[in-house]
Amino acid sequence: MGVEVVVEGLTKSFGKQTIWQDVSLTLPPGEVSVMLGPSGTGKSVFLKSLVGLLKPEQGKIVINGTDLVRCSEHRLYEIRKMFGVLFQDGALFGSMNLYDNIAFPLREHTRKTEAEVRRIVLEKMEMVGLVGAEKKLPGEISGGMRKRAGLARALVLDPEIILCDEPDSGLDPVRTAYLSQLLIDLNAQIDATILIVTHNINIARTVPDNLGMLFRRELVMFGPREVLLTSDEPVVEQFLNGRRLGPIGMSEEKDQATMAAEQAHADAGHSDGSPDEDMRGVVPQLEPTPGLPFRDAVRRRKDRVMSIIHQLPYEAQQGIIASLTPDDLARYNVHAGAPAQAPTPSPWPRQGGVL
User: Fold this and answer.
1) Across the chain, which distance is largest between two alpha carbons, in Å?
2) How far, in whole angstroms, is CA 304 from its chain's centroid?
3) Structural contact between residues 105 and 113, judged by C-beta atoms closer than 8 angstroms
4) Which intervals hold domain ABC transporter (predicted)?
5) What does the alpha-carbon distance between residue 341 and residue 227 come to, in Å, rounded to a whole number?
6) Distance from C-alpha of 159 to C-alpha of 349, rounded to nearest angstrom
7) Which domains does the chain have, with CATH numbers?
8) Which residue, 86, 89, 93, is CA-closest to 138?
9) Cα angle: 335, vertex 310, 298; to 5 degrees
10) Separation of alpha carbons 27 and 46, rounded Å
11) pLDDT at residue 271, as a whole number
12) Alpha-carbon distances of 289 from 125, 185, 201, rounded to whole Å
């Protein structure tokens, strides 16, 4: 199974500009997580910090007892072998065909024979639907195929942690849907810990087990999908609904006067071009393709959610219970339509680990 990634008090700056500060969360082992945020909030910087490509000024990143922020270069090199990274553009070598691109990490980091390399490469190419494209160059194929080739290359060393930097970038909605399904299928097959950095609302709502949100140089929330999809946290609700009305502006944030003027405009019945329907609620999560194993991550996540459901607002409790299957209702001994308990004034849990 994938490994747990524990982030404590992480702060990253470039010169005098703080990108984000005091970020704390835990990526649960073997689960799919998504980090959201408006453009320019440091999502990709966070991903690169996790793999050791950038060094934060403060905090810890602990994997298997090793703090990547303070460990030796030799130890960091060893820990990096646990990672597979899918970069935005696939990061393929333009002069190499797809087979050689995907084989590159095996030839660079292992002493496997060419027969072993061929077996692994073809296995991973089949996994991502690229059989028959071995001899094609990156410039001869579509963006979606390049993404899949990049993913196959990220998988050849059998990583326990997979990082995906905006996998939907440059893809149309259909190819994005196929890639989303592919990531869920991979998790079902290899149970790796997966972190996807994106600002795609559909990916955020349907793919991950856990969701996080970066805004105003801080981690606003991180926790199981059910918690964020039913959240009334203004920035989370605005982002997941794709609305203009809320704290996020064309620049990263709005001042109070702008927010008040927009609210008055909306209260007067004027449309701002945003979706009329409030999409808050626990929509169905993508399931593995029929024939693949059940994702154990789903049960682990639901167990966590039901252990904290009494801490959540009344409306969130109702929304979460409404999303449970009949088997879930029996497992957790709750009844459809009934809240887990009376309304609570407690605020939403914020950052500081897995909810």
Assistant:
1) 71
2) 18
3) no
4) 5-241
5) 16
6) 31
7) 5-227 (3.40.50.300)
8) 93
9) 70
10) 13
11) 47
12) 17, 6, 22
Smallest Cα–Cα separation from 215: which of 183, 254, 185, 271? Answer: 254
Task: Give per-residue burial for 211-243: e unless 16+ CB within 10 Å, then b.
Answer: bbbbbebbbbbbbbbbbbbbbebebbbbbbbeb
The residue type of 262 is E
Terminal CA-CA length for the chain: 21
Decide: 186 and 155 in contact? Cβ < 8 Å.
yes
* Sequence-separated (6 or more) residues with CB below 8 Å from residue 316: 227, 230, 231, 232
Strand stretches in the chain, DSSP E: 5-14, 17-27, 32-36, 58-63, 66-67, 83-86, 161-165, 193-197, 210-215, 218-224
Residue 248 pLDDT: 82
- Name the helix (H) or strand (E) containing 238: helix 234-241
* 299-342 per-position pLDDT tens digit: 999 999 999 999 999 999 999 999 999 999 999 998 766 665 55
Name the amino acid, one letter, at 38: P
Written as six digits, the tokens of 239 are: 């982002």
Q: Which residues contact 237 (CB under 8 A, 6 or more apart)?
A: 231, 243, 246, 280
